[in-house]
Amino acid sequence: MKRLFLMATIAFLMSINAMAQRQKAKVAVTVDSMATVNAYLDSLLAFRQQQMAAARTDDAVDAMKPDGRYYRLFVPFTFYRSPAYRTLALNATHDSSATADGNGDVAEAIDEALMAMYLKRPDLVVGTETKLDKAGSVRDDLDRPVKNDVDMSQAVEPVPETPDIIPQGLVIQKPNFWTFKGDGNLQLMQNFVSDNWYKGGESNYSMVGQVTLAANYNNKSGLQLENILELKLGFQTSPSDTVHKFKTNNDLIRYTGRLGLQATKKWNYTLQLLAYTQFTRGYKSNDKRVYSDFMSPFNLNLGLGMTYNLSAFKGKLTGKVNLSPFSYNWKYIDRTDLCAHYGIGDHHSMDDFGSQVTSEMEWKLSDMVRWKSRFYFYTSYSRAELEWENTVQVNISRYITTNIFVYPRFDDSVGRDRDLGYWQFREYCSLGLSYAF
Question: Backbone phi, then psi, for 32, in 5-degree steps?
Fold first, then answer.
């Protein structure tokens, strides 16, 4: 009886001792797990320092060999055999072949950390080592260097030899300093008055055609040549004129030429030539007398001076003003019966010297309205001749325009009119087609 009681007492004491040992092991496992995590953080810091040191020297590559056994703590949580084997083994010495990472303090600490998690959070386990064995292992030859057996001389084409002189297909074109432009319009006018119109009057029809051509040269080095040819011809009919079925109401052939040499940005030294006459005979209503004809008169004016290039209102007003203090004027009358009418007497020609001022301006008042002006003044200091042509053009559409033409003229070499003196006037308003190129 005493022996039985002694054995029971020994068994009870051994159970109490085993429970104390298990409690002590549990606390040790928790402490050792925290130490393992701290050691892993220290290894990460050491690994970073090794990388920074390796970036500064090529010899430190071999020293950067981090411990890869920590991967089991961070991959998806898996039940490995080694933690259970180390905990439940009866002998103190473990067989390294039965563990995943062999013996050592690091391996034992990792197994103890995993075992603690198995006991506390078994719900986190998503796989087993047996499943990993069935899936297969990672290749064990990845640590060996890979060498490519490639003959680079066959893969890369030889670089062709570059000649010292490379031929180029260059085409050199001579610059074209000429510019050409022009415009033309055909204006029609019609006026109808019935026979019983209370204010009287008469019906009439008229037509005016105009063409302006320009060919200009500028070599961008100061030499300029301008050529402008103006052609105007118009006819009208009126029932009151029983002598002529139609007669001209506008007739002009005029050439303007300028040879300039640039003096400043705005001024040019200029030699200017003006020559003008008309196409056909000029009549008055119910009068058979010819008042003008081709080359009757013909005026030629050659002036030496300077030309000012005008540009104002942000380029909307442009033009040229020519001042010729030295000017030669020659007037020729081909028809003998018209010599006296133009103040030449019995001769066919007359010449004199004087000064002249000419200007050509264009002002774009809006997108639809523009004003063109030409001014001419010549004096021999014994006679004077002045012309001022003004055209207001209204663009109704791209090809349809309306023109208002006002033309005052002064010439004291002809007979004096009783009402207007030496002044003469022309004016008309028309609607027609216009084209510029």
Answer: -65, -30
